[in-house]
Amino acid sequence: MTTLLKVDALSKSYRQQGFWLNRKSTTVLSPISFSVEAHKTLAIIGEAGSGKSTLAKILVGAERPSGGSIYLNDQLLKKGSFKHRCQHVRMIFQDSGTTLNPSLTILQLLDEPLKLNTSFDVNKRKELIRTTLQKVGLLGDHMNFYPHMFSGGQKQRISLARAIILQPQVIILDEALAALDPSLRSQMINLLLDLQQQMGLAYILISHNLGIIRHFSDDIMVLSQGKVVESGKTLEVMNNPQHKVTQKLLMNQNFQLKPNRKTR
Ligand SMILES: Nc1ncnc2c1ncn2[C@@H]1O[C@H](COP(=O)(O)OP(=O)(O)OP(=O)(O)O)[C@@H](O)[C@H]1O
Ligand SMILES: [Mg+2]
Q1: Of all residues in the chain, what percent carry a pLDDT higher than 70?
Q2: How far apart are CA 188 and CA 180, in angstroms?
Q3: Which residue's CA is the nearest one to ligand 1's atom 19?
Q4: Distances in Å between the alpha carbon of 237 and those of 5, 6, 45, 174, 221?
Q5: Nearest-5° angle of CA 47, CA 185, CA 222?
Q6: Helix pair angle (122-135, 152-164), 10° resolution
Q7: What is the structure's pLDDT at 82?
Q8: How many CB atoms lie within 10 A of CB 51?
Q9: Which of 197, 159, 217, 201 is nearest to 43 (CA)?
Q10: Residue 63 burial (C-beta neighbours within 10 Å; 0-12, 13-18, 19+)
Q11: Are 246 and 229 contacting, i.e. CB atoms less than 8 angstroms apart?
């Protein structure tokens, strides 16, 4: 198995406002280490404020870590490697469908990352946009539409198209499925699993929905106050949670034990 993403002792503290003598720093992430392989999904769960989104933002390069290192394909990601990271690690947010710029067509929206990160000519970019729309279950001709002409589920697919168009290796889903109703959500999950198979993607799935996590993920990591309190194979951790935080999270959802769809 190939390790795509390796995180080594990543930490984050925020400086609080105030006079410098009184300035305190709050630790949001204590040193965290983990790795994710191609074709695999790592789920991250934890109470509100436990540091999940902060970790996601650091991984995509939207926040700076206070310490630690991130390796992509065994290569250390340096501060200046933003373009490289943009191309290989992408993120989809809960409301990413609603954040699509309403004044741009889908063609223009999907063309942005291509213009910024590739040297493809206009025809090649258009062709790639067409095939990517088809990959996420939309039509090539949808490229001429504006975001308001799509339903919520379709907008989420456009966000997914935008995320995969640069052929990334890692996709981070931060509550990306939370706003979808159950039937759209399961369609989206199946689409994500198909794309994972086709493209060898690694997913980092942040979700409060333990049903989705059980269905979708291979491994799980439980965060509490910025620390990893438990990690392991999803089924093992869910069937036999060791830490009281994990037990509480599972109990809160009155979680029913069902078999996982992935064969392992
Ligand atoms: N820019 C910032 N400055 C100071 N503190 C911050 C900043 N951003 C986040 N935090 C703090 O970091 C902690 C972790 O926040 P984070 O958004 O990562 O939590 P989360 O696990 O994603 O929570 P949720 O489940 O509610 O999405 C919180 O206590 C939050 O207040
Ligand atoms: Mg969050």
Answers
A1: 91
A2: 9
A3: 49
A4: 22, 21, 12, 21, 9
A5: 25
A6: 130
A7: 66
A8: 24
A9: 217
A10: middle
A11: yes
Best residue among 53, 172, 204 to mutate for probing ligand 1, ranked by most atoms within 8 Å of CB: 53
pLDDT over threshold 80, residue 196: yes
Asked if 23 and 202 count as a contact pair (C-beta separation under 8 A), the reply is no
SS3 242: coil
Give the 3-state secondary structure of residue 113. Answer: helix
Most confident of 22-31, 106-115, 149-158: 106-115
Domains by residue range for the chain, with CATH: 3-252 (3.40.50.300)
CA distance 203 to 197: 11
Whole-angstrom distance, CA of residue 80 vs CA of residue 221: 29
pLDDT in tens, 59-69: 998 899 999 99
Place of tokens 């994990």: 246
Nearest CA to ligand 1 atom 9: 54
CA 56, CA 54: separation in Å to the nearest integer?
5
The tens digit of pLDDT for each residue in 101-133 reads: 999 999 999 999 999 889 999 999 999 999 999
Residue 259 in this model has a pLDDT that exceeds 80:
no
Question: Candidates 14, 66, 174, 210: which one to mutate for ligand 1, based on the most atoms within 8 Å of Cβ?
Answer: 14
Q: Please report the atom of ligand 1 found closest to the CA of residue 57.
A: 18
Give the residue, by CA position, lying nearest to ligand 1 atom 1. Answer: 14
Q: Closest residue (by CA) to atom 29 of ligand 1?
A: 49
Pocket of ligand 1 (CB under 6 A): 14, 28, 46, 48-54
Q: Which of 175, 106, 204 is nearest to 146 (CA)?
A: 106
The ligand minimizing its distance to the Cα of 54 is: 1
